[in-house]
Amino acid sequence: MCCISQSVSDSLPFVTTYQADGWTALADPRRRDIFERLVQQPLSVAELAGDLPISRPAVSQHLKVLHDARLVDVDQVGTRRIYRADPTGLEPLRRDLDRFWTATLQNLKRVAESEHNQEHNLTEGERS
Questions:
Q1: Rounded to 5 degrees, what angle do the CA atoms 50, 84, 8 make?
Q2: CA–CA distances in Å: residue 26 to residues 21, 68, 120
Q3: Are 72 and 85 in contact (CB under 8 A)?
Q4: Does residue 95 share a domain with residue 78?
Q5: For 123, how many CA atoms within 13 A lie in the half-sphere containing its CB?
Q6: Which site in 73, 95, 104, 111 is 20 to 30 Å from 61, CA atoms measured?
């Protein structure tokens, strides 16, 4: 009878890496937490894993997603890989938010003008 060996990576939940955009990468609360820590200071996988309730391999998987989305960059320092937030990766997200905010303000203006016109028409109708 053969024994089935299970490696650490086999027991980890699979982290989706096929969608490498900032919104998808930051949708996961763990990745947001990792990203926020890297905004504060560059850190290694070991330093991140030491502060989080997840394993080093899981942190590495999350970092891969963040790296693929261009939200983090990595530097090789000796045998260590140091991760840091990459502000250029936030530019597409900022553009999206600016677009959403502009559209929201335009819609709010349209609604306010429509309500004003309706009130004005009612007032005009009362005078007749």
A1: 40
A2: 9, 12, 46
A3: yes
A4: no
A5: 6
A6: 95
Q: What is the tens place of the pLDDT at every residue in 39-51?
A: 999 999 999 999 8
Domain that holds residue 100: 87-128
Residues 77 and 16 in one domain: yes
User: What does the pLDDT look like over 78-89, one tens digit per residue?
Assistant: 999 999 999 999
CATH code assigned at 80: 1.10.10.10
Q: What is the pLDDT of residue 20?
A: 73
How much is the pTM? 0.68
Asked if 84 and 75 touch (Cβ cutoff 8 Å), the reply is yes
Domains identified in the chain, total number: 2
Q: What is the mean pLDDT of the chain?
A: 84
State whether 110 and 98 are in the same domain: yes
* 115 neighbors 45 (Cβ within 8 angstroms): no
Q: Does 113 lie in the same domain as 126?
A: yes
